[in-house]
Amino acid sequence: MDNRRIGLFDSGLGGLTVMKELMELLPDESIVYFGDTGRIPYGSKSVETVIKYTKSDIKFLQTFEPKTIIAACGTASAIALPQLEGQYNIPVIGVLGAAARAAVKATRNGRVGVIGTAGTVRSDAYRRVMEQTEPEIQTVSVACPLFVPLVENGFAEKEAAYLIAKEYLEPIKTSGADTLILGCTHYPLLKKVISEIMGDQVTLINPGFAAAKEIKEELIAKDMLATQTPEDQYRFYVSDDPGEFTHLGSIFLEKSINGMIGRVDIEQYTEALAL
Ligand code: DGL
Fold first, then answer.
1. What is the pLDDT of residues 1-10, one digit of tens each?
2. What angle do CA 98, 153, 76 make, to 5 degrees?
3. Which of 43, 120, 197, 249 has its CA 20 to 30 A from that of 72?
C-alpha cells in the first residue's frame, strides 16, 4: 500500500487524455497534474529546450513527494526521458515504452505506423524501442504538426481535420501498416477521423491507455496501490492563466475541475536547477 500521489505532466492540457485513462483504471489513486501551458508547444522545440522544460516539470512535481512521475507528453517521453534515466529516486516513466510494447504485441504483419510531433518523429525513439523487442519490425513515421492546433481549436471532428489527416496518413496507408501508434497526447481525440481513414483492420494504439495499464500492473506487483483517497484527490497546476484550462479540461475529463487548479511559476524551478 502506498498512498502517495502519482505526478503527471504534459506541455499543456493534452496530457489529460492520459489522466483520464489513469482515473478510470486506478480510481483510488490521487493524482497531481502539471500542464506547462505557458511554454507549450514542446513538439517544435530543440532537444535541449525539451530536456530543460522536462527537468523543471519534474522538479515541480517532486515537491508533492509522489510515488511515481509520468511524462504524459509524447515529445518529453521521446526526447528527454532517455537522457534523464537513473537521475531520480522514484520511477519517472514516459508513455512511449508502454505504447511501443503494445504496438509490437498488436501487429500481425510486423509493420507499424507512428505519428507524433516533429520532435517525437525526429527522435526516432519509437522505432528504437520497438526494435529492442522485435528487431524485424518495420516502422513508418510521420510528423503531424497541424493535429494539435486542430484539437485545441475544436476542429477534431470537422471536415478540415479529415482532409489534413488524409494527407498526413497517406504514407502510412501505403506502407500497409496494420497498427498505428497515436504518439502524441492530443491524437486520441482525433481517433474518429483517423480510424475512418485507416479502416477497421488497422489497430490504433493509445499511449495513455497502454501506459495506464502498465502502471497499474506495476503498482499491483509492488504492492503500491493507494487505499485511501484524500478530499483533494485530483490537483491541477498550469504555468499560465488557468481559465482556458478549466474550461477545456472539464470537457476533456468529462468532469468539472473548477476550483481545483492553481498557477505555478515554472521558471522558478528552471532557475533553481540552474538550467
Ligand atoms: N504534448 C505534446 C506531445 O504529446 C503535444 C503538444 C506540444 O507540442 O507540446 O508531444
1. 999 999 999 9
2. 30
3. 197
Which residue, judged by its Cα, is nearest atom 1 of ligand 1? Answer: 73
pLDDT at 242: 93
Q: Using a 6 Å cutoff on CB, does residue 37 contact ligand 1?
A: no
**Tens-digit pLDDT profile for residues 121-168:** 999 999 999 999 999 999 999 999 999 999 988 899 999 999 999 999
Q: For ligand 1, what atom is nearest to the CA of residue 15?
A: 1
Residues 6 or more apart whose Cβ sits within 8 Å of residue 271: none
Cα-based angle 115, 109, 76 (whole degrees, multiple of 5):
25
The secondary structure element, H or E, covering residue 182 is strand 179-182
Residue 177 identity (one-letter amino acid): A
Predicted TM-score of the model (pTM): 0.95
Counting ligand 1 atoms within 8 A of each CB, the residue from 17, 18, 75 with the most, and so the one to mutate, is 75
Domains and CATH numbers, the chain: 6-94+209-269 (3.40.50.1860), 97-206 (3.40.50.1860)
Q: What average pLDDT does this structure show over 228-252?
A: 91
- Is 144 annotated in the active site? no
Whether the predicted pLDDT of 15 surpasses 90: yes
Q: From ligand 1's centre to the CA of 123, what distance in Å?
A: 14
